[in-house]
Amino acid sequence: MLFNSLSFLVFLPIVLLLHYLVPSKIRWIVLLIASYFFYASWKLEYLVLIVGSTLVDYYAAKKIAHSSSAKTKKFLLVFSLVINLGILFFFKYANFFSVEISKIFGFSVDHSSFFANIILPVGISFYTFQSMSYTIDVYKKRIKPAHHLGYFALYVAYFPQLVAGPIERAGHLLKQFIKPKKVNRIDVYFAITRILVGFIKKVVIADRVAAVVEIIYADPSVQNSTALLLGTILFAIQIYCDFSGYSDIAIGVSRLFGINIMENFRSPYFSKSLGEFWSRWHISLSTWFKDYVYIPLGGNRVVKWKMYYNLLITFILSGFWHGAAWTFIIWGAIHGLGLIIEKRFSFIKLPRLINHLLTLTIVLIGWVFFRANSLNDSWIVIQSLFSLSGYGSIIADGKSLFFGLPFWKFASLGFLVLLTIIIDLLIIKRIRLYKVFSKKPMMAWFTYSLIILFILVFGVFDNNEFIYFQF
Amino acid sequence: MNLFTSSFKNKKISLFAEITVGLIIISVVLFGFQFGTDYLVKHSNHSQYGKVNSIFNGQVTEDIVCFGSSVSEVGFNSKIIESITNKSTYNSAIDGTRIKQLEPLIELLSNKPNKPQYILFGLSYFEFASTSKITAPDRYIAHFSQQEIIAMFQSIDKETARKLSYFPFSKISYYNHTYYKNGFIGLSNLIKKQNSTKPINKGYTPKDKAFYVPNFDEVKNTKSEVGIDEQVVKSFEELIVKIKNSRTEPVFIIYPVYLGAKTYFNNYSSYLQTIDSIATSNGILVLDYSSHPITENKDYFYNIGHLNRQGADSISTLIGFELKKHFDKQPN
To answer: Does the beta carbon of A55 lie under 8 angstroms from any beta carbon of chain B?
Structure first.
């Protein structure tokens, strides 16, 4: 069930109604049933995985907390990690490794083989990481174990953020399930505003831009440098609006239940360094990797070369988390190396604009690998982007005038880019529309009507999945 | 107190009531937009929209009406037929559309008191292929409240029918720029007080283009299959029987294809046999130009399957004379 599907538009009001009809003490049950129903709507069998992961981590953490033996604690932690990472490895990486090992040893790979037919359960990378962080936090004594299996099950499966994050921490979310906040007027206006902004980002901007990106990246070898540069910039817009749009909807929907979930994006393309970019892009994942990979590796408190090594490893793993392909690994490595260079030459002070452009350039180069259909396609795009002679008019060949799009449609892409910038500027300037709306309800609801109309008129309603669902 | 600064809070209305009022405001705005746009589109006389509107508005009263896809839309010159047969003629073909989708329009027309004497079916090679998607739904959605249109959507594309039937305002997501353009045309017609929604040229859309097909040699040498779905054939035959029972005579036209359809399809003869079988069992006149010498001359086409103005006028003349011969044979 996608947020941008009609079934979700039926599901959400029903869950909200049930949630507020039952006494507050048992509201978590409504949310848990709704979350399992939401997840089972993709495939009923997937429920086994999420329930299995929940049971393993709940009981492992409980035993860890109550055991006095360090060895037992460690064993239980390793057991929990092996189960979670094992599930993730089997569903996400088994085929990749079977192909790569076959290449190394020269076996012929049968693509209809067992591994190639494994279907990746939606959201598995998100909830396994969320569940693992709980066990690690209990082991590290950062939090106490959940006293109730139901609350913990809801923490793992909470539907607004189940399939594409933000990857929450037990310390933040569990207590909210136990003592939910009473929803007030500001929450309602915050939630509706946020959900609508999310829909604009997803169905109006991301899905419209995606159509052009798809044409350009389908076969980069037939496109000139101008087209590829444009395609890469548009992909940067697409992925940002797609993913942050999902997060906006998740945050808004969650607020309607009185649950605050963490922010995942803070206008990342306005960053002046890669370090800043990663504190603004997919915040829940980057902090996860910082807390559970980078710091345990030694973090900054080691000699410089080891710190650089830690950074590179963390980012390569982060790339690999996104997908079992070399393109994602290279994407992670580009960011890791970029950060190393940034730290190594931090004594060089450049004008703000140059810093901004440099950051954007590295991010865009990274997106090429992230988006390209293969490593070969990535190289074609990179070579073309850096070949000065390849730049020319996109309409040079006459036939593919604006990639087959009429001029007005092409011009509307410019408007969509502008709209993205406007939305981000509102966030940067801390203009909180929902506060204005909560004070002027008539204006608010009339504005909401116009925004919904805008979404219906300009949106794409082909049930396009969110990009991050595939991770 | 101005509308936009009034506050429910001051009036001590609960949050629940505030949300309810808010939802009513949203519904009113969306309903107003949807109703207004549909209303204007229903007054458009532009191309396909005009054709659909004119049938629903009861303005198609000609003796001969042709239905079909773009092949008939660009290949059937109503004025030529009219001048030869002395019978009023109208081209109601809609591009990209097979007969299955035009069924509600045809049925509506053949059930009216001033129904046509003859309904001509310009048949395309994809006529009997199975389908689960409505082509260009925007042309019909202004009339989605009509039972015939709802039934047609349900029979072809259940999902879209369900969306449009049960989700308020989902219709707006099907509007496209052509829909809004037709809305403006409708508005202009309303201002000019023009009541007719029939498009110009009696529905004929001539194409003044020379033959151009990119990679023609490749296309010529790639053969494919003509889709024939038994259910679609059965439903087509049922429609023909209904039309005959309503005392309107159906006529089949098989349009020429450059170099002959057999060049591009392996089983084109099965398609012709299907038509022949329906025609024989129901006593229907078939005007078959699939092997006519015109298929050898690309000057008459603008692409493989579509006639240009020169080709359309030539074929329309032939159709006109064939029809006249047929009418003359019939008792008054």
So the answer is: no
**Integer Cα distance of B31 and B179 in angstroms:** 17
How many residues would you count in chain B?
332
Q: CA–CA separation, B110 vs B119, rounded Å?
A: 8
Tokens matching residue A140: 């590290």
Burial class (CB in 10 A: 0-12, 13-18, 19+), B254: buried
The reply to whether residue A456 touches residue B30, judged by beta carbons under 8 angstroms, is yes
> Euclidean distance between the first and final Cα of chain A, in Å?
16
Tokens of B206: 């001539």
Q: Enter the ipTM.
A: 0.78
Q: What are phi and psi of B249, to 5 degrees?
A: -95, 125
Amino acid A26 reads I
Residue B119: beta bridge partners?
Answer: B65, B250
Are A441 and B8 in contact by the 8 Å Cβ rule? The answer is yes
By Cβ distance, the residue of B3, B4, B169 closest to A456 is B169
Q: Output b/e per residue, B158-175; b: 16+ Cβ within 10 A.
A: eebbebbeeeebbbbbbb
- Provide, as residue numbers in chain A, all residues whose Cβ is less than 8 Å from the Cβ of B15: 184-185, 188
Surface of A (429-468) touching B: CB under 8 A: 439-446, 448-450, 452-453, 456-457, 459, 461
> What region, left, alpha or beta, does residue A401 occupy, with left being phi > 0 and alpha being psi -120 to 50 degrees?
beta
Q: Per residue in B274-306, pLDDT tens?
A: 999 999 999 999 999 988 998 888 899 999 889
Alpha-carbon span A110 to A94, nearest angstrom? 14
Q: Are strands B285-288 and B89-91 parallel, antiparallel or unpaired?
A: unpaired
Q: Do residues B150 and B123 make contact, with C-beta atoms less than 8 angstroms apart?
A: no
Q: Are A230 and A390 in contact (CB under 8 A)?
A: no
Residue A270: name the closest of A427, A467, A432 by CA.
A427
Instruction: Enter the tokens of residue B326.
Output: 């047929």
Say whether A459 and B173 touch across the interface (CB within 8 A). Answer: yes
Q: Let me know: does A420 contact A237? Beta carbons within 8 Å.
A: yes
Of residues A281 and A432, the one with the higher pLDDT is A281
Percent over 70 (pLDDT), chain B:
95
Report the run of H or E that residue B123 belongs to, with start and end: strand B118-123
Spatial distance between the Cα atoms of A194 and A251, rounded to a whole number of angstroms: 7
Q: DSSP secondary-structure letter at B66?
A: E
Give B246-255 pLDDT, tens digit per residue: 889 999 999 9
pLDDT band at A360 (very low <50, low <70, confident <90, very high): very high
Determine what percent of chain B falls in helix, strand and coil, rounding each to the nearest 5.
Answer: 55, 10, 40
C-alpha A402/C-alpha A159 separation (Å) is 40
For residue B1, pLDDT over 60 is answered with no
Say how far apart CA B63 and CA B118 lie, in whole Å.
6
Active site residues of A: 322
Cα of B259 vs its chain's centroid, Å: 26
Say how many C-beta atoms besides its own lie within 10 A of residue A269's C-beta: 19
CA dihedral B231, B235, B236, B242 (to 10 degrees): 160
Q: Closest Cα of chain A to B126: distance in Å?
A: 25
pLDDT in tens, B254-270: 999 888 877 788 888 89
* Residues A396-432: tens digit of each pLDDT: 444 454 555 566 767 777 888 888 888 888 777 777 8
Angle at B42 between CA B37 and CA B47, to 5 degrees: 110
